[in-house]
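User:
I study polymers; will you set down one protein's sequence and backbone structure tokens?

Assistant:
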Amino acid sequence: MDDKLMLMIPGPTPVPEQALLALSKHPIGHRSGDFSKIMAEVTQNLKWLHQTQNDVLCLTVSGTGAMEAGIINFLSPGDRVLVGTNGKFGERWAEVCTAYNLNVETVTTEWGKALDPEKIREKLEADKNKEIKAVIVTHSETSTGVINDLETINRYVKEHGEALIIVDAVTSLGAVNVPIDTWGLDVVCSGSQKGYMIPPGLGFVAVSAKAWEAYKTAKLPRYYLDLGKYRKDAAKNTTPFTPPVNLFFALQATLQMMQKEGLENIFARHQRLMNATREAVKALNLPLYGPDESASPAITAVAPVGVDAEQVRATMKKQFDIVLAGGQDHLKGKVFRIGHLGFVSERDILTAIGALEATLVELGGNGFTSGAGVAAAAKVFAE
């Protein structure tokens, strides 16, 4: 059936009807007073979502572009940086830093496990001369469905005193608690197609006062991603370059929806969806790729035995128009990932799990009782 596609991936995520209708409006001039009013409202609501009074800047980029901006605006060639790598995106930030001739040192944990904050602490404490200028951490590692202990890592960075903490919050902002001002996070980056519930195209960078001090002496090249330009124009409710106007319409709508739901309810919903998904997968006798204690509320990675991960994805798409994410790099063909981020409800999880059960039956999977997955998810929702 046409037009029944159901996205259950970590991004792009489903878009609510209010946002879709907003996207369909006729564009307006981005230098107009009407756009400035929208920009003012969106900026204020972004600060609410980020739990900060600091600048939250909007860039016409993906999450990767937001992270690149977050790295290059506050550092200089040769600066020593620590990058936590326990998945695809941590490794990507190390690659970005290397491309800009930073002195990169990785703190590595195998995929599927959370970063060990103590390894970061040891390196920071050993830095007696305060040469480490930044610690770069992926909060929710989308490639494996693991969430890292950002609060503890940040505490160790603060004890160091000199280093900035730069955070990839692309799949955690809007799904889990990221209290920027309470924790004193310096640079926090995210993307529109995740918890914000709108299509790809906007990146967001929250910047602390400490980071702005580092900006004054940072010497890495930048132009389009020069956050100073965005800060100056944001103060006048405008942007330095042409923004995707209709995405701002949609963002205005979804931020209003999020305020109506409330931060605590948003976080609780994502936790509930994650718990239901994981309990359902266990009931279907499918191994989870990562322990419960470090599971991300954005996405659940499954490492099936007895059925092929890509066959599961292909059958879900063909038979039910439900799209799951595949594995990345060496996990390609070994895992599939179920997204439960953004505009996702309990009904969506029950639908996806029911389709997954039918898919397993079709592919000859065994070792589970028919209906066990849906029952396990429903039990979580009934609690």
